[in-house]
Amino acid sequence: MKRVEQWRLRAAFAARLSRMYGKEVPAYTTLVEVSHEVNEDVLRARGSAAERLGSLSRVTAERHGAIRVGTPAELGQAARVFAALGMRPVGFYDLREAAASAVPVVSTAFRPVEAEELARNPFRVFTSLLTPADPRFFDPGLRARLETFLAGRELFPPELLTLADRAAAEQELPPEQAERFLRLAVGAFELSREPVDRAWYRTLERVSAVAADIGGVRSTHINHLTPRVLDIDALYRRMAARGIEMIDTIQGPPAWPGPDVLLRQTSFRALAEPRAMRTPDGDVAEGALRVRFGEVEARGIALTREGRARYDELVGLVDRRSAQAPERPREEIAREVWEQHLPRTEQELAARGLAHFTYRTSADPPRDGTRPPADIGALLRRGWVEAEPLVYEDFLPRSAAGIFQSNLTSQGTRDNSREAAAYDAEWLSGALQCEVLDPYVLYERQQNSSLSRVAHALGLERTGLVRPVRPTRPLHCEHPGHPEHP
Q: Any idea which GO molecular function terms this record carries (predicted)?
């Protein structure tokens, strides 16, 4: 019988997770329905231009999930599960510094990294790790209690991890084992029915609702599962019209007449979900927790390092202008700033090196006897090459923190007089015993591969058209150990 390849495991896992989450959070099903409606309307209105950043079939199937774990060992086990699905850790996000409220986590995103794998199924899981070593949030006594609690739980059963390791090593599984793996993997992310220790949960919640969601329960769960939509502003209006309470804003770049870049996100507010609560005297009572919400995203073009620096500068400019004119809507100010400082066309983004594209020689190149120039902007303007935008496959820490913050019931506490613990991408790579990949390198590699083909076809190999990209380490990762906290 035919074995099940990794991408099929990934697609099946994403679909089953979506069905499971829809049963747990019915408003998510509404979100998916409205996303489909909006996407179909956009396709009818814009035609093929609507699929400039991905076919409708890809956009419709696209999801990103979000989970939270408590220790490097738990993160390493999650990495093994995602490795079975052909997903690698990409990017380091420090949400501690990106939010005004207490969000004591650092994060990475597990996703496919090769273009063909992304085209088959671009499932991603934004995975956050608690930072109990950060004294701004946790004093020594609470840190010790928290780490003891986390050390005593099991998020992923050994059988799941064994099957995951086999799938990662062989890049496929026999059908029976594939089915068992999928059942166990989806089950690992279901909301547990085990009673929550109310006193312990409230202790952590006073520090951070995110910390309580991670360290106050004995399991992990999907916090949100995010569909992709082609017009997030239309979706926001339609969800509100259906009586779904949305957060106050759409996070990320503003809506404006130029190219969509990076990522825009919004969500409906976290819902009160019934949970059994264990009281100090040992009884079990009905309670409710607000930790899960319904996020949706619209993806744009991946920016280069230079483009991202420009984006960050513009966000800072919007912040300053908003502070100077608090009576004006931030969205209005942001749109004004974008129109003043960002190129209005894809061609200009490419020519100025601000965004990533793949390039191909034109089907109808100039026939005036001139030689092609060794400059991408000139090649585009004169019709020698055509550019296809690369979709931004990753995340924005400020936007992620903004979504988290918008769904918190309290700001929590953070002692800014204390020095932050040092967590960074290098530390996270060590914790995983696997390189956390730099997303810019992945985009640069894909772009440069296309430029190399263009340079060869046009006789431009000896020019500076293609810049070298540093190699990443091999794709293989060792099983994670138990590194010390910083």
A: dioxygenase activity
Q: Which has the minimum average pLDDT: 49-53, 197-201, 238-242, 288-292?
A: 288-292
Tell me the C-alpha distance between 335 and 260, whole Å.
12
Closest among 35, 111, 11, 59 to 294, alpha carbons compared = 35
pLDDT of 474 over the 50 cut? no
- Give the residue among 226, 229, 225 at the shortest CA–CA distance from 53: 229
Lookup result for tokens 């130029």: 258
Would you say 125 and 13 are in contact if contact means Cβ atoms under 8 Å apart? no
- CA–CA gap between residue 236 and residue 221 (Å, rounded): 26
416-463 pLDDT, tens digit each: 889 889 999 999 999 898 899 999 999 999 999 999 999 999 988 777
423: Cα separation from own chain's centroid = 19
Place of tokens 């996000």: 93
Euclidean distance between CA atoms 320 and 325, whole angstroms = 9
Amino acid identity of residue 81, one-letter, is: V
pLDDT at 288: 83
Domains of the chain: 4-229+394-437 (3.10.180.80)
In three-state secondary structure terms, 417 is coil
User: What sign does the CA torsion over 103, 108, 111, 115 have?
Assistant: positive
pLDDT, tens digit, 9 for 90 and up, residues 377-430: 999 999 999 999 999 999 998 888 777 766 666 677 888 889 889 999 999 999
Output 267 or 71, whichever has higher pLDDT: 71
Return left, alpha or beta for 171; rule: phi > 0 is left, psi -120 to 50 is alpha, else beta. left
Q: Classify each residue of 386-409 as buried b or exposed e, where b means 16 or more C-beta atoms within 10 Å of its C-beta.
A: bbebbbbbbbbbbbbbbbbbbbbe
